[in-house]
Design brief:
By secondary structure, this protein is of the alpha/beta class. It has three domains: 66 residues, OB fold (Dihydrolipoamide Acetyltransferase, E2P), CATH 2.40.50; 215 residues, Rossmann fold; 137 residues, OB fold (Dihydrolipoamide Acetyltransferase, E2P), CATH 2.40.50. Helices cover 24% and strands 30% of the residues. The chain is built from nine helices and 23 strands. The strands form four sheets. Strands 7-22-23-21-20-17-18-19 form an eight-stranded mixed β-sheet, with helices on both faces. It has a seven-stranded mixed β-sheet with strand order 10-9-8-11-12-13-14, with helices on one face. Strand 2 and strand 3 form a beta hairpin. The longest helix has 20 residues. The protein is globular. The N and C termini lie far apart (53 Å). The protein binds S-adenosylmethionine (SAM). S-adenosylmethionine (SAM) binds next to helix 5, strand 18 and helix 7.
Length: 482
């Protein structure tokens, strides 16, 4: 196969990024925006040995699950890899991706109990983050095309609510009318760099990131925002660095009270311009509710909440437990968690530790049984997953339940593989075993006893239309599993 060939072939599976996979004359070809079962005319763009990458020129026989994408720049911006698939097919693709990860990485035939969705499959995102650039003398607001600094311009984004379009229009008109300069990646000059917006129940925090110390025209912008948004705060953030990091360290509140008050599951907290917040409010609530029910805690339970962010979930757990200990690496998030504990009268039951989990969790896990009859551990790590020494501590000091919230199915499969004795913690490789179901493998490998058993696996449709997958696996001690 050569670059620029055009072939007619049928897609036989879907890759981890939502792309179609073709097997054709000994070559595996990855082609975005093609669904399994579809026959397509494919232009080969790149060949590397037996792997190739292509672009679909024409879908000759469309899948019955193909739907019309809502977005005007679908397949240009690269953010929504699955907008052309029905929601039932998206659920199936995500379920199979998780199952394939478990099978390939840990040798586990995992049964996924379902995909929990909210009502909104579009218009669900509560956070919008857009670069503002001057490119070839023109102002552009949109998303960076994947892997480039070229902006795909947008007027609105359908996975965000309608306010996204309103905000973009206000900014475009304001920039034109006030002749505000925008950042140019080649000259590193120009003032406006980014806009970040977050929304909770009709209340907004807007942040404008500038490459300078002052933004003289800001009052003009506030006036225009006031014509369409009646409840907002506006921050100016200073970022003069030449990096891809969006926010600088300095925030200057120029309008509004600066935060949004939120109440959830009996816990009151504040969202600021930097607070971590799941992007889909409706599904976040369903996920938290599931974690609370899996945790099955009582007032004799000690809960350890690893990678705890601003402590919202820790507080919900603390309310129901004897004690909850949150561990988080970002100082501002831990300060927010301390405030949250104080404001909710939970200071005596909620401890927030600022440290890398790998440095402190092993000892906390070891000592937790002294504090309560029952110990439950929540793990909600970033994409790279949980560090090995934490997993080993959980194997050496068995706890009653582990609830693993994951944004990377690959890391989840590896870590659950270690906890269930299917993956060697030293090498990260699968332990070969004749029975890939849940039978103990103690006799085969006494050192890697199957300490925990998967009790439930649920997917949460936190990011409809995109390739991203949020999963929650609940594990219990093997002897206790029912
Ligand atoms: C997916 S968020 C979880 C947030 C929280 N569970 C919630 O629902 O709000 C992951 C968190 O882990 C933190 N983090 C990343 N690496 C860490 C580490 N090594 N130790 C502790 N926290 C870490 C991040 O700062 C982030 O707040």
């Amino acid at each position: 196969m050569n670059k620029n060939d055009v072939i007619l072939a049928t897609c036989d599976s879907t890759g981890y990024n939502g792309e179609g996979i073709f097997h054709y004359n000994g070559t595996t070809i990855f082609v975005p925006y093609v669904l399994c079962g579809e026959t397509a005319k494919v232009h080969i763009l790149k060949v590397k040995g037996s792997i190739a990458f292509g672009k679909a020129l024409e879908i000759v026989t469309p899948s019955k699950d193909r739907v019309l994408p809502k977005c005007a720049v679908f397949n240009k911006c690269g953010g929504c890899m699955l907008q052309h698939a029905s929601s039932a097919l998206q659920d199936k693709i995500k379920t199979e991706t998780v199952q394939n990860c478990f099978k390939k990485i840990a040798g586990i035939d995992v049964s996924v109990d379902g995909v929990i969705s909210g009502q909104k499959l579009y218009g669900y995102r509560n956070k919008l983050q857009l670069p503002i650039r001057s490119q070839n003398g023109q102002v552009k607001i949109g998303f960076f095309k994947e892997g480039t600094h070229n902006i795909v311009e947008i007027d609105s984004c359908p996975i965000h609510p309608d306010w996204s379009g309103v905000l973009i229009k206000i900014l475009k008109d304001f920039i034109a009318d006030y002749k505000v300069s925008c950042y140019d990646d080649t000259t590193k000059k120009g003032l406006l760099r980014h806009v970040v917006a977050r929304e909770v129940e009709g209340e907004f925090i807007f942040t404008l990131v500038i490459n300078g110390d002052t933004f003289k025209a800001v009052n003009g912008l506030i006036d225009r925002l006031l014509t369409k948004f009646n409840n907002f705060s506006l921050y100016i953030n200073v970022n003069k660095t030449d990096t891809n990091v969006i926010l600088g360290d300095r925030f200057n509140l120029v309008y509004g009270k600066g935060y949004i008050d939120v109440e959830e599951f009996g816990v009151n907290y504040k969202i600021g311009p930097q607070s971590f917040m799941q992007v889909n409010t409706e599904v976040k609530k369903l996920l938290y509710s599931h974690v609370l029910s899996c945790a099955d805690i009582d007032n004799d339970t000690v809960v350890i909440d690893g990678y705890s962010g601003a402590g919202v979930l820790t507080a919900m757990l603390a309310k129901r437990a004897k004690k909850a200990i949150g561990v988080e690496i970002i100082k501002e998030a831990v300060d927010a968690a301390d405030n949250l504990a104080k404001e909710n009268g939970l200071s005596d039951k909620m401890q927030n530790i600022c440290a890398p989990c790998e440095a402190v969790l092993p000892d906390i896990i070891k000592n937790a049984k002294k504090d309560g009859k029952k110990v439950v551990v929540i793990l909600d790590p970033p994409r790279k997953g949980v560090e090995k020494n934490i997993l080993l501590a959980l194997k050496q000091n068995l706890v009653d339940a582990i609830i693993y919230v994951a944004c990377s199915p690959q890391s989840l499969a590896r870590d659950v593989g270690i906890l269930t004795g299917r993956v060697n913690p030293e090498t990260g490789t699968m332990i070969k075993c004749e029975n890939s179901q849940n039978a103990p493998i103690t006799d085969l490998l006494p050192d890697f006893y199957q300490d925990y058993t998967i009790k439930s696996t649920l997917l949460f449709n936190m990011f409809p239309q995109t390739k991203h997958i949020e999963s929650v696996v609940c594990l219990t001690q093997s002897a206790k599993a029912t």
